[in-house]
User: Which sequence fits this backbone?
């Protein structure tokens, strides 16, 4: 029964475009209606009709501790009692900056902002200012927030510049963005050969999460490091998802590749709006007021949001957290793979740590094109079946399922069972 969700959705449609404040929430990709939630408890979400779900969206990544973690709630409570915002510096910002720096050796200085989008937008501006060049390389299927110059579709041919992926973006803004296939060494080589001296930087999700989970091919990130160094362009890792999810030092720590700039978000706000970008001192010193590159924010470094982030990171730093996350996520992966085997299905499961995607395709998924070979109709049916059985998955084939520290053996076993039932009903 989703009576109250339905009523709220009808009301929302009259006041909010599409009834939602971020498009994927509308569940259009799975031909469903959005569910309105009342509260979250650990690994569970409870909707306005009182239905309970095991949650694999986890607010799209931030809630690595699960919902309503007591330490996070306490920090938000005490921070709010001291005041909600001062528009002036607080000690919490210094603590968060130092804590992130200690985890990310590539970061000497860091600027806190309010979202991942702000972080990538500012990092691009900074890369352009530092190199005095305009062109940016990004990869198809990687998402870096709704920044004008990064919302591009590939033009025709590999080494042509992008066209806007949304109305309202002047072509002049995307004309400087090259959109290349992820994991394609040759395309990157070719682009640098042709435009090397004009390229300010390469921005990449070191483990892609926004076309579903897609891992970098062996040597791909090292290759990006080498070629950007060779052409004196900057390497920007968008670790808005992977930062503090793949480990305390993100994907860069896992792969041992050092970017010039790093974008963070999601987990570092512990469920409140925080983003950040940071990197080498020499580059970050260009940011105002130390340097001329303007970037500002009324609520940047907001004490309540930063307190939630601090509480989250401190929990993550306790020994054994990532081992536990890995073990439980591996259990989920293996469980799903066993189900597939039992049912004679050859769908693909991609996983990196606690992010996972079940692709409804038999092709190995290594980039956006192969991800697109997935049967999204089937995924939509699967999503609805899982929902009806009390499992809330991201409402799109091209998203990561996020496992949190609140997900235990019991939740994983129940999820695997429901995957079996759902896929069996579909066969
Ligand atoms: C979510 C996300 C963003 C944008 O962050 P917002 O806080 O939604 O603006 C940027 N990059 C990546 C990789 C993301 O997953």
Assistant:
């Amino acid at each position: 029964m989703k009576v109250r969700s339905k009523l709220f959705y009808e009301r929302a449609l009259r006041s909010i475009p599409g009834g939602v404040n971020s498009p994927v929430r509308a569940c259009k990709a799975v031909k469903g209606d959005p569910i309105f939630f009342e509260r979250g408890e650990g690994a569970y979400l409870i909707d306005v009709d009182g239905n309970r779900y095991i949650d694999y969206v986890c607010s799209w990544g931030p809630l690595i501790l699960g919902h309503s973690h007591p330490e996070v709630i306490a920090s938000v409570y005490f921070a709010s009692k001291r005041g909600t915002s001062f528009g002036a510096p607080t000690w919490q910002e210094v603590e968060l900056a130092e804590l992130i720096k200690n985890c990310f050796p590539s970061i000497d200085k860091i600027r806190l902002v309010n979202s991942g989008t702000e972080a990538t937008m500012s990092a691009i501006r900074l890369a352009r200012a530092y190199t005095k060049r305009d062109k940016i390389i990004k990869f198809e299927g990687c998402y870096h927030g709704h920044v004008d110059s990064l919302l591009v579709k590939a033009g025709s041919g590999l080494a042509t510049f992008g066209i806007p992926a949304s109305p309202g973006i002047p072509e002049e803004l995307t004309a400087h963005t090259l959109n290349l296939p992820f994991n394609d060494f040759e395309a990157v080589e070719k682009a640098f050969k042709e435009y090397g001296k004009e390229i300010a930087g390469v921005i990449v999700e070191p483990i892609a999460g926004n076309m579903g989970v897609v891992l970098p091919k062996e040597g791909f990130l090292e290759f990006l490091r080498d070629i950007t160094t060779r052409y004196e362009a900057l390497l920007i890792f968008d670790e808005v998802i992977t930062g503090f999810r793949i480990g305390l030092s993100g994907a860069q720590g896992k792969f041992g590749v050092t970017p010039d700039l790093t974008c963070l978000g999601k987990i570092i706000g512990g469920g409140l709006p925080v983003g950040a970008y940071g990197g080498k001192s020499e580059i970050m010193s260009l940011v105002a007021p130390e340097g001329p590159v303007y970037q500002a924010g009324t609520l940047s470094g907001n004490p309540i949001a930063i307190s939630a982030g601090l509480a989250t990171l401190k929990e993550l730093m306790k020994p054994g957290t990532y081992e536990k996350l890995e073990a439980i996520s591996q259990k989920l992966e293996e469980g799903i793979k066993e189900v597939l085997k039992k049912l004679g299905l050859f769908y693909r499961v991609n996983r990196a740590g606690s992010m996972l995607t079940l692709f409804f395709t038999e092709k190995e998924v290594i980039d956006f094109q192969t991800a697109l070979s997935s049967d999204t109709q089937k995924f939509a049916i699967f999503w609805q079946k899982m929902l009806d059985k009390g499992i809330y998955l991201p409402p799109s084939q091209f998203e990561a399922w996020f496992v949190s520290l609140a997900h235990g053996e019991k939740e994983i076993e129940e999820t695997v069972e429901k995957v079996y039932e759902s896929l069996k009903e579909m066969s």
